[in-house]
């Protein structure tokens, strides 16, 4: 289910973050974060996690033309959803 998938992703991210905060090196996990990788204000990308939290946004991995087109096609709806989320949270 979608709820179980989101819970698993959150648990996996939390586990890796705690591992990194406790000194483990080179922990990488994907997360939906504020980003300049695309025209959207937020995007899911791999993050390098370290003892200080998010050390670096590793950006969008190399994509083939088809994948790049899918990302471009998703932008209008993604930006619309981000706008709705920001408006909802500012109420």
Task: Describe the 3D structure.
There is one protein chain. This protein starts with a helix and ends with a helix. The protein has helices spanning 2-21, 65-89; strands at residues 27-34, 42-50, 53-57. The chain is an alpha+beta fold and 91 residues long. A hairpin with a 7-residue loop joins strand 1 and strand 2 (42-50). The longest helix has 25 residues, at 65-89. It is globular, with a radius of gyration of 15 Å. The protein is 49% helix and 24% strand. The mean pLDDT is 96. The chain contains two helices and three strands. It has one domain (2-89): Lactate dehydrogenase/glycoside hydrolase, family 4, C-terminal (L-2-Hydroxyisocaproate Dehydrogenase, Chain A, domain 2, Alpha-Beta Complex), CATH 3.90.110.10. A three-stranded antiparallel beta sheet has the order 1-2-3.
Which structural traits does this protein have?
24% strand, Lactate_DH/Glyco_Ohase_4_C, three-stranded antiparallel β-sheet, L-malate dehydrogenase (NAD+) activity, L-2-Hydroxyisocaproate Dehydrogenase, Chain A, domain 2, 3 strands
